[in-house]
Amino acid sequence: MTATIRDVARASGVHVSTVSRTFSAPHLVNAETRNRVLAVAEDLGYRPNRAARALTTGRTHNIGLIVADISNPFFPPLIKAAQAHARTRDYHVFVADTDEDPQVEEELIQTLTKQVDGVLLCSPRLSNRVIERLHADVPFVVVNRRIKGMPTILMDVAQGARLAIEHLTGLGHRRLALAAGPSGSWTSGQMREAAAAAAAASGAELVILGPNAPTEQGGLAVAAEVVASGATGVLTYNDLVAIGLIEGLYERGVRVPDDVSVVGVDDTLSGRLNRPKLTTVAMPTSAAGRIAVDLLLQSVGDGGTSTLTTLETRLVVRESTGEARS
Questions:
Q1: Which of 14, 120, 259, 277 could form a disulfide with 318 if both were Cys (CB 3.0 to 4.6 A apart)?
Q2: What range does the domain containing 37 cover?
Q3: How crowded is the C-beta side of 68, counted as CA atoms within 13 Å?
């Protein structure tokens, strides 16, 4: 038979209300008592009734996690890390995909508001104004978008762009291109500013190509512009664009890295398996997922703060970059 809260209370030698508080408000229970109750609950296989607990505490113990494109290999490590970490905090995660559509994103947030205690917004496409309006109804933590007054996790893509441009100019490339991301992307804007500054500091030219879809098709489509630009070194919005670009260049008889060097962003599995293996900017996606959960639960618990956490990126050099031809 399934263990009940009364079974746990009897075996622990405490009142039923103490067992209830152990799961709904553990900070109100003495540590020694709490640990004893949790151990007994584990031995008996007791699981608290979430629906009943939600009625008592007003908490669902659910989190919404909204991503721009779940098929993009950038997002799964972040999702898995967030889910695993949330489970250790006795929370479940609902994952939703906007397919890069801001209207869908707004509809999903409005749908989830009554079913979750808070929402993680990863690379949102909505305007700041709309996000601030929706934030009045549910706590947010935003990943890879800076919004004043909101808890934020940033992966320092500007640092990554600088490292990539410095790597290319260090190999002798003097005419560079940035295959930018979609319009409205905060990340793409950060890359554009940092890449332009780094190129200027190195005495190199930088041409901006885009906006582009953040997919392999986006990379294929921009290949002709890269060739026409005369660039010998290219930084792309993400690994998917880089992989598509490499394919598009090969179709035009342009070899990577012999003729053109290509740098991606994200350090996804597909980039590591591609030929040539992709030089890329590694993004700390798993760490971002775990920290985002902690910030959101802090926000749910005490109203939170406008904490800004910036995570370092790093350049991983592989086979898709080489010295510029003299």
A1: 277
A2: 5-57
A3: 23
